[in-house]
Design a protein that fits this description.
The complex is a heterodimer of chains A (286) and B (377). Chain A contains 1 helix and 15 strands. By secondary structure, chain A is α+β, with helices and mostly antiparallel strands. In chain A, the strands form 2 sheets. In chain A, strands 2, 3, 4, 5, 6, 7, 8, 9, 10, 11, 12, 13 and 14 form a 13-stranded antiparallel β-sheet that branches. A two-stranded parallel ribbon of chain A has the order 1-15. The N and C termini of chain A lie far apart (114 Å). With 377 residues, chain B is an alpha/beta fold. Helices cover 22% and strands 36% of the residues of chain B. In chain B, the strands form 3 sheets. Chain B has a 17-stranded parallel β-sheet that branches. In chain B, strands 1, 2, 3, 4, 5, 25 and 26 form a 7-stranded antiparallel β-sheet that branches. The longest helix of chain B is centred in the N-terminal third of the chain and has 52 residues. Chain B starts with a helix and ends with a strand. The relative contact order of chain B is 0.14. Classes of the chains: A alpha+beta (286), B alpha/beta (377).
């Protein structure tokens, strides 16, 4: 039997050229589809992540500013105004830090009752924080009611109230004992500023304790152009530049992604931007 | 033989399509799940913010509810005594819990926890708020036992004194400051055996006694009235009790509280802490009996005899007294055209009676400044 002769039932080993070409075409087409799908999904993934990050920045930024400003006290015509300076992209104010009730006062010390009536994210800090103690010599009259600002002259110490319960002893000076009912309201505050600050070439919402040490620290960002916009309104809803007249604050935060995101249409270099606006009602304004 | 060859041929023709497809599906599924996770995180963040806001609103409702439904019983809670109130649902998924702590000088600290509940009733968000409150004591310009915008005429055998005097047998009164006997925008005229004494005895032609000195506290207190009585005659005011165990009967319009204290006879102790604000939009004639608190009369007040009252009397019309046995311990303010105190009455200035009448009868309001507090517990 000649070697070149193939019987009808001889097994067919290998592929024909057409089969190979067909297989390669199918392979390339499938691989291209998979690659395109992966690219698409990767873009979607990155865009979604950037958008989520930008929105989280917006939410946390606006909540931070709103929470800080909501508790601000303001009295039209002056008096007990906690807004010290107001601008379109910064605000300086007394930020409330602790609250509770006194259990003992003397000329140079205020003891704050610890326990469930005391509230604060951190302990008072000397110099940086100040005391606000409610004075009301004549409880039958509101005309002498006032929060008296006193310095904190030493680190607060653990102590006891006259009844033996735990207290926080805060050193101060210039307190006129007869002006206070004990127990009575007490607060602490620090002078704060919120403003735009730059770090690593990016803009952030920064916070700085003006009564403490240290500079402006970025807390939320990155923000886009005009990242923090504040409009101050009086009781009639008109914008005002007088701190004591402010009743509401319109707050706009504009966020920006960390890096450019390729758009689904193929565009390159677009930075995701988003914004959130809300109105903060000053709960202690009158 | 032929079947074996065909099987071998099929094995040889296996391609990469299935493997590639599986790999592609896995990669795509991973990417989709990544996007899904990112979206879930974003949505969870948004939901969290909404729930936190709802919890805050529940806490706000708790603050407002306490002020709207203030009970004068809170005014006498023990100092430092935390008073926790039952939790209240706000809508289908909100809840607040209040704790009220009394301080001195008529001040309170209200703490409220607001919860947002999930479908199974579990807490999914909590916020804490607080508010400093004070008793809504109106600004009362009391510088004398009797304050009148018009002239004061004292006759008969009356005794008006501005020296601070506690009601008989009352205990726990802080020392007060002596005031004038009578203070008037016109003249104070005493006839017969009448006596007007104090520090000073009289303040006459006081131009500061304008309408608002009388109408401002009148209108404020009127809004907190315990008893609103039509104009007319009222006789024999007596403290009464009801129920078992017995308690002061606030539903009885002739029960104006118990000013007497032991060892006086017939003291109704259940009503010693009852200081009603009695308001009449018309004119009143009162005759015999006793009471305490704040008496507000928009018209004229005529006290005819044997009527004892501890607290504050504000009359926007004229005040006239007659007969014997009348006694007011506290302060009287009259804006009307004439004040004629004749017969055999006594009017004693009492800082203690004034303070108790106010502190036991008024509701609370937020401190004027820095009352609202964001708390962490």
């Amino acid at each position: 039997m000649p070697l070149t002769t193939r019987s009808a039932d001889h097994p067919r080993a290998g592929f024909t050229l057409v089969e190979m070409l067909l297989a390669m075409i199918i392979f390339v087409a499938t691989a291209s589809l998979i690659y395109a799908s992966m690219r698409l999904m990767e873009k979607v993934h990155r865009t979604g992540g950037e958008r989520a990050g930008a929105q989280i920045t917006l939410r946390s930024g606006s909540q931070t500013v709103a929470a800080e400003l909501r508790e601000v006290n303001n009295v039209d015509g002056g008096g007990m105004s906690d807004l010290i300076a107001i601008n379109g992209n910064s605000v300086t104010y007394w930020a409330m830090r602790n609250s509770g009730m006194t259990c003992q006062v003397s000329n140079n010390e205020v003891r704050i009752k610890k326990g469930p009536t005391y509230s604060g994210y951190r302990l008072p800090i000397m110099i940086r924080d100040s005391l606000l103690v409610f004075a009301d010599r004549d409880s039958l009259s509101v005309t002498d009611d006032q929060w008296v600002q006193l310095p904190i002259l030493g680190p607060p110490q653990n102590s006891t109230c006259p009844d033996g319960s735990p207290a926080l002893a805060v050193g101060t000076a210039g307190l006129v004992v007869a002006d206070y009912h004990v127990p009575g309201p007490v607060r602490t505050f620090e002078l704060m500023q919120l403003a735009i600050t730059t770090s690593g070439g990016r803009q952030y919402l920064g916070a700085q304790s003006l009564s403490g040490s240290g500079g402006m620290e970025p807390v939320v960002g990155p923000l886009g152009a005009g990242g923090l916009q504040l409009v101050y309104r009086n009781q009639f809803g008109a914008s005002t530049t007088t701190p004591s007249s402010v009743r509401t604050i319109d707050l706009t935060v504009r966020s920006q992604g960390y890096r450019p995101v390729t758009t689904l249409g193929g565009g390159v270099g677009a930075m995701l931007r988003d914004s959130l606006a809300l109105r903060v009602l000053l709960r202690n304004a009158r | 033989m032929r079947r074996a060859r065909l099987t071998a041929l099929r094995r040889d023709e296996r391609g990469l399509a299935l493997v590639l497809s599986l790999i592609a599906m896995v990669v795509i599924a991973a990417l989709i799940s990544g996007v899904f996770v990112a979206s879930r995180q974003e949505m969870a963040g948004g939901r969290s913010a909404v729930r936190a806001t709802q919890a805050t609103e529940a806490a706000e409702a708790g603050l407002n509810d306490m002020l709207a439904n203030w009970s004068v019983a809170y005014n006498t809670y023990g100092i430092y005594g935390d008073s926790a109130f039952p939790s209240v649902m706000v809508g289908p998924s909100g809840r607040y819990s209040q704790v009220l702590t009394r301080m001195r000088g008529g001040k309170f600290l209200l703490r409220v926890r607001g919860d947002q509940l999930g479908a199974s009733g579990n807490v999914i968000a909590t916020r804490y708020l607080g508010r400093y409150l004070r008793l809504a004591i109106p600004d009362l310009d009391i510088q004398a036992a009797v304050t009148a915008q018009d002239g004061v005429t004292a006759g008969g055998n009356i005794d008006i004194t501005g020296f601070d005097t506690n009601p008989p047998n009352w205990t726990g009164c802080a020392p007060g400051i002596n005031k004038a006997g009578a203070r008037s925008g016109q003249a104070v005229t005493a006839h017969g055996a009448s006596s007007v004494i104090g520090s000073p005895a009289e303040i006459e032609f006081d131009s500061t006694l304008v309408d608002s000195v009388f109408t401002s506290p009148f209108n404020t207190l009127k809004g907190m009235a315990t008893l609103t009585l039509p104009g007319g005659s009222y006789t024999g005011m007596t403290p009464t009790v009801t129920g078992s165990p017995s308690r002061c009967n606030g539903a009885n319009t002739l029960n104006w509280g118990e000013p007497f204290a032991a060892p006086a006879a017939g003291v109704v102790t259940q009503c010693q802490g009852y200081f009603p604000i009695i308001y009449s939009p018309g004119s009143m004639v009162v005759n015999t009996g006793r009471g305490q608190g704040i008496l507000l009369v928009a018209g004229d007040l005529n006290i005819q005899g044997n009527f004892i009252f501890d607290g504050i009397v504000i009359v926007l019309g004229s005040l006239q007294t007659a007969g014997t046995g009348n006694k007011v311990t506290g302060a009287v303010l009259t804006a009307g055209q004439s004040v004629s105190i004749v017969g055999n009455p006594d009017v004693f200035y009492s800082s203690c009676a004034i303070a108790r009448a106010l502190q036991y009868s008024v509701r609370a309001e937020p401190l004027r400044d820095r009352s609202w507090v964001q708390r962490v517990n």
